[in-house]
Amino acid sequence: MQIDLATAWEEVTDLFPNRNAINCDGIALNWRELESRASQLATLLTTNGLGKNSKVGLYLHNCNEYVEASFAAFKIEASPVNLSYRYKADDLVYLLDNADVEAIFFQSCYAMRIWEIRDRLPKIKLFVQVDDGTEGLLKGAMDYERALRSLDPAVRIQRDLSSDYLFYTAGTTGLPKGVVHEIGAFSSYFIGQVSFRYGLGPPTQIEEYRELLTEINGSVVTLPACPLMHETGCWLGCFLPMLSGGSIVMSSSRGFNPDVCLNLVEQYRVTDLVFAGDAFAKPILQSLDFASKRDDPYDLSSLNQIVSSGVTWSPKVKRSLLNYCDATMTDKVMAVEGVLGTSASRREAPDPDVRPSRFDLVEGALFLSESGEVLGPNEEGVGRVATNALVPSGYWKDQEKSVATFLEIDGVRYSAFGEYVSVNADGSFVLLGRDEVSINTADGKIFPGEIEEIIKQYKGVADCMVVGASDGEDVEKIVALISSEDESDINGSAIKEFVQGQLADSKVPDIVLKVVEIRRSPTGNGDYRWGKVTAIKQSQK
Largest Cα–Cα distance of the chain, in whole Å? Predict the structure, then answer.
């Protein structure tokens, strides 16, 4: 069965109109209210000339309006486009132009930034401002709530399942890349994930989907702690629970506040907490530690699972979290370009020897050698994974990269987006990292992920990033950038010895440098462009 997101959410609305759908900062909407507001926004979009395959930019923090505007875009067969609120003028202009965005929703705090670049955005027909109490209404923009009050809801339509859904990568090593999914295939994949969670087969017709929703009965309450502009927050933290007929709880705060997060878990009896790696997990753990010392612990008994994707989390953090809550700790290897695998840890069987980067491949995934040959089952080696789970249509406006990445093997379409792994004889794999962040040493290609993972286990290390640095030569040195937990000095020799005890000599850092903090995006992804520049500058001192 294929179904688009808007139609699926309309089905949820019809079944459970009075059930809570979204709640941000205490402002709650049930499914009937959410669908009505999204339908009004759909009217706003169509009356301004948008329609099938139009692009709608979302320059917003986590908020109810983000979900409403996404729903509205899907209703008219358009695509919402994720925009990082860290983008400044040039980056924002590039992405809006590259995506052919025709309408943009933005919060008042970004009104002046929009004003500064408005003349550079000739494709945009509609500017809609969400009032957050910071700035007055931008000249030429429409006030979000005022517009809603003046519009009738759009009529539901039969939608084309091949419509584009455009989502941009984080751009941690270069400019963000647009990735296009067919909305029908995209929606069906996540509905299948809903079914799988409850031990059921994927629905083959709309009646079976309704039965699935009735059986689940809104049991999922999800808190996306990371930004909705990232696929982890958007897809796992928002779209997936909505497709299950569940509800979403959010905070609109731009910076992550672990105590706000934990209070929301308590207050709303959150079942699923979604974030991205140690950048979120460590602050949460610190708050749990402080609360425990105050003899006022947080109540996490409602949590069924904590999900991390996009960035792996370290074993010591995962084990520490298991001490505070009896939930499944789920690591998903997922990117905008496809899904590779999953790892799960539980309190009753935590394995301290299993690295966080050791996953089980999705069923049907293939292992490709450096030459592109398909290796046999359980054959050990290093290469890239080709997955048939959530395969996009292609890269936006980049046919050459699409041909190189999205392959047809034995009549099946795969995504081989440059994620390298070391495959074990038991079929599991250790995630090494993207080809674009690999380090070209005298001993060959080295991936930073497994080195970073080891260093994070060293006592006193708060965070680290491993990059390649050279003086213009082809051969790069391995440089480890490390921040400490208590601002103490970093013993480079001890770090090297620690790595040497667990990895091959070729993977031991040549240089260890202390930094105040590792620069990461709001989603937890490391900024490897910054890392390279920093490594070169500091190693030359």
Answer: 68
So what's the pLDDT on residue 47?
A: 97
Residue 311 in domain: no
Domain end, chosen from 414, 436, 458, is at 436
How far is Cα of residue 464 from the mean position of the Cα atoms in its chain? Answer: 20
Query: In the chain, what are the helix, strand and coil shares in percent, each to the nearest 5?
Result: 35, 25, 40
pLDDT at 356: 47
Q: What phi and psi values does residue 536 have, to the nearest 5 degrees?
A: -65, -45
E-only strand ranges, 178-320: 178-182, 221-224, 247-250, 272-275, 305-309
**CATH number, domain containing residue 74:** 3.40.50.12780
Give percent above pLDDT 70 in the chain.
Answer: 93
Q: Verify that 379 and 502 share a domain, yes or no.
A: no
Non-local CB neighbours of 192 within 8 Å, separated by 6+ positions: 202
> Between the CA of residue 534 and those of 121, 305, 313, 477, 479, what are the distances in Å?
34, 37, 24, 14, 10
**Residue 413 contacts by C-beta under 8 Å, 6 or more apart in sequence?**
388, 391, 406, 407
Cα–Cα distance for residue pair 372/381, rounded to 1 Å = 13
pLDDT of residue 85: 86
pTM of the model: 0.87
**Count of structural domains, the chain:** 3
Output the CA–CA distances (angstroms, integers) from residue 348 to 326, 337, 354, in the order listed: 9, 34, 15
Question: Which residues are CB-neighbours of 65 under 8 A, at least 6 positions away?
Answer: 105, 130, 144
Cα–Cα dist 44/138, whole Å: 18
Yes or no: say if 421 and 383 are a contact pair by the CB < 8 Å rule.
yes
Q: Determine the Cα–Cα distance for residues 530 and 467; give it in Å rounded to an integer.
A: 10
Query: What is the rounded (10 degree) CA torsion for 504, 510, 514, 520?
Result: -70
Q: Identify the segments of the chain with pLDDT beneath 50.
A: 352-354, 356
Residues 6 or more apart in contact with residue 317 via CB below 8 angstroms: 278, 281, 282, 285
Per-residue pLDDT at 513: 92
**Parent domain of 35:** 9-16+25-180
Has residue 523 been placed in a domain?
A: yes
Q: Are 149 and 38 in contact (CB under 8 A)?
A: no
Backbone region of residue 478 per phi and psi (left: phi > 0; alpha: psi in -120 to 50; beta: other values): beta
